[in-house]
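Review form for a predicted model. The reviewer records the input and the model, then writes brief findings.
Reviewer: anonymous (R2)
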Amino acid sequence: MTTREVFAAARAKPLPRRAAAAATAVLTLWGAALTAPVAAAAPAAPAAAGNCAVLSPGASAAAQAAVRAACEQIGVWYTWGGGHGAQPGPTYGQVDPSDPASAHDPERRGFDCSGLVRYAYARALGGDPLNGNSYHQFHSSRVTQRFSAGQGTAPLLPGDLLAWGSGGRIHHIAIYLGAGKMVEARQSGTHVMVSDVRLGGDYAGAVRIGTGSAPSGTFSTWGTGVWTHTEASTTSARVHRFDGPTMVRVECQKHAQTVTADGYTNDAWSYLPEYRAWITNIYLKGPAWLDGVPTCR
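Model under review:
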């Protein structure tokens, strides 16, 4: 029955005065409710950071600061290549040819997984101590302790870096919060988020980042697209490419093949133990023969 039919029926059958008054009031309220415009639904509240925090004790003050810096980015877009500008911080991303979901990443300002880690530890330690990709960060000279995949989360502390990859490759990295949780920039189409730690699949283990000054024997590379090699020679197999300046630990150096590049000529090569590879000293910041680094035997 429509509102009009209800009112018509009420008029057709007179009621006692008190009942008529009550019926009129009810019908008036009902009619107002039916004819009033529907209020627009309130927008959903933005997703809260939830439990993105230091969730267990024992971490250093700097590691806790890294966790807090990463948690401040909850809700920021994941964007492939994001966070790898000249300075730590969110940047617009790139299209990942292997991921159709990244089509809008050039329009989104945010972080990829290693960009978030880089930013968090730059905030915590100052400078730019983890300025490479996830592989560089997992093998950084700043690492003071390593944990195998089989150890799970039991020995981990907030601020430790969890990594995924196999066959010597690392393709993803995240920051441990404690209590089996982590904060990560996971994949295109999502935002920086808190997740349960994923110990299955190709989980490769975790590392702890030292919070003191860079250890002795640590140098920065320079340039872009710089390759390391299996031997101290450009004709040997390539091992790893540094896409930009990266902190590396040099174990020793020796005279070997003479190389001319970017206006420099040098026959000194350095061995990088974390990469199991050689790099010409041309691309290490410092003198042609590095001070304080022993000769390889």
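Findings: The radius of gyration is 30 Å.
Further findings: Helices lie at 3-12, 17-35, 61-71, 113-125, 134-138.
Recommendation: see findings above.
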